[in-house]
Write a structure and sequence with these properties.
10 helices, six-stranded parallel sheet, alpha/beta, 358 residues, Alpha/beta knot
Length: 358
Amino acid sequence: MAYRDTNGKQPYRKNRAEGDRPSRNYGADGTRSYRSADSEGSARGGRKPDGVRGGAKRVETRGERTENMDGTYRRGSEQQRKPYRKSFDERRTETAYQAPAVQQSEEDEQPYLLIGRNAVREAIKADRSIDRILVSNETDGSLREIVNLARDKKLVIREVDRKKLDELCMPFGHGGKTANHQGIVAYAAGVEYCTVADILAVARERNEAPFVIVLDGIEDPHNLGSIIRSADCAGAHGVVIGKRRSASVTAAAVKSSAGASEYVKIARVVNISGAIAELKKAGVWVAGADMHGQPMGKQNLSGALALVIGSEGDGLSKLVRESCDFLVSIPMQGHIDSLNAGVAAAILMFEKRRQDGK
């Protein structure tokens, strides 16, 4: 295949329509020579068969890189070897951030935190076992008061950025927003659950008729915290919750209780009906909150009483409803025929206290 001399100018090249584009090489005198693309030779720059670069060893193609069988790849001569570098996507996948694993127990899916000023203050006053307290470096009057109280108790205090507190409290917020930590968080030991007998013992120590709140399937920890708070304000001796299909006393519940969980006895039982039977044996009347019950103003709620509150959606389960001595309702006058479980519980608690004359 011949090409015309151009006297040092760019040699003539075939266009794509005329055939394969020839490969190019330089001679010893600095002139360019050409050969067909399908020719083979040892000259540098000659085109090699598909899948081979440099013509030294058998290689295989990996994506856009040419890789030797020993895990290295080449560009040009055999001496220019470099270790195979992973692609950006491979490195990004391997180095992708993974949240640190949290040790989870059967009772609580989140680390036990006390969130907010009231919760931390009441835990310190109650001599709760606290591992450490994280406080924002932007303190104000009430926050400094809590910090001084913690220092008097010889507790570990660490100042952190507010963003750190936001990250810790994010799992306990709603609607994609972090929980309102108010600049302070404490790591504490998990809540100490008691038994139904322990709650009755508190009533005997106070020389009062037992007043117990029983929760049948409350699944929202914020509702649970609200009910615990109302129970403390209404003078209840304890709260009974179930182990199954019920919220446990998590950080969100403690936050909603505003620290009341430090003062109210909480029993966690396997069977709510069994707990009701135990209360009956102790001479306690059991009233179930149900919209088909007797209006609370016409029902006698005074004396020893266990008030049973059903779940947010379904109310009392059939077995628990049958275990109650009677049902009580809250008169409704608006267009909505139901109340939030926490609100309904609070209304019935204070109606009971009103009838007790307290």
